[in-house]
């Protein structure tokens, strides 16, 4: 039997993930079945199960892939930024300039749907909570850095501020996923940035 290269396996795995995301976006997470992914990817069900044990694992791997890419991007972008304020501004800039593709609204809906789905199951809730805490810790680190440099108000609780930050972000995503009003989505980012930075910075 010919040996399959690691590169081939990775390409096949990514192809399955891309097809799954397309199916989840079009039909929703819960309505999608493995046969939908089989049809879209043109990969047999048996082959898909060689890479992933279940539909849940496919989605969790999609989520992990996007999460890892986000933090890798932030690490690269923040390498040249010397202040906490600039790092926060860079995050807002990233979302304000985000190119919204046709299926982004559906993808956001799937993200929200899976959060609700996972909240009802202890094992998934634990996994999703760990991911959430990774994002919380990221902003906490920036807030503490800013407090040490004098850019951010010292009386603020970094943990609380981080939760507020992500609540604002997720709220705007929720509204866009439901209404699909791109102009309002972008306008809201300007307001959110101004409100948040005015509240947390010492300027």
Automatic annotation (TrEMBL):
PROSITE patterns: HTH_TETR_2 (PS50977)
Keyword DNA-binding: yes
Keyword line: DNA-binding, Transcription, Transcription regulation
GO molecular function, a single term: DNA binding
Annotation: DNA-binding region: 33-52
Domain HTH tetR-type residues, every copy: 10-70
Transcription regulation as UniProt keyword: yes
Source superkingdom: Bacteria
Coiled coil: none
Pfam families from the UniProt entry: TetR_C_17, TetR_N
Protein name (Swiss-Prot/TrEMBL): HTH tetR-type domain-containing protein
Organism listed in the record: Fictibacillus phosphorivorans
Lineage start: Bacteria, Bacillati, Bacillota, Bacilli, Bacillales
């Amino acid at each position: 039997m010919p040996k399959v290269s690691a590169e081939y396996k990775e390409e096949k795995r990514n192809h399955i993930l891309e097809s799954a995301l397309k199916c989840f976006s079009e039909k929703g997470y819960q309505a999608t079945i493995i046969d939908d992914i089989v049809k879209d990817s043109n990969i047999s069900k048996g082959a898909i199960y060689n890479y992933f044990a279940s539909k849940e694992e496919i989605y969790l791997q999609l989520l992990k892939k996007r999460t890892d890419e986000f933090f890798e991007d932030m690490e690269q972008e923040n390498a040249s930024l010397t202040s906490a304020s600039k790092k926060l501004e860079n995050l807002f800039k990233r979302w304000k300039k985000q190119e919204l593709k046709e299926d982004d609204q559906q993808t956001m809906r799937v993200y929200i749907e899976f959060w609700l789905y996972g909240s009802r199951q202890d094992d998934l809730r634990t996994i999703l909570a760990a991911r959430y805490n990774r994002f919380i810790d990221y902003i906490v680190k920036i807030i503490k850095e800013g407090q040490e440099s004098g850019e951010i108000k010292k009386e603020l609780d970094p943990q609380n501020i981080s939760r507020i930050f992500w609540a604002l972000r997720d709220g705007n995503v929720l509204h866009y996923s439901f209404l699909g009003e791109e102009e309002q989505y972008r306008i809201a980012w300007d307001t959110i940035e101004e409100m948040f930075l005015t509240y947390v910075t010492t300027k």
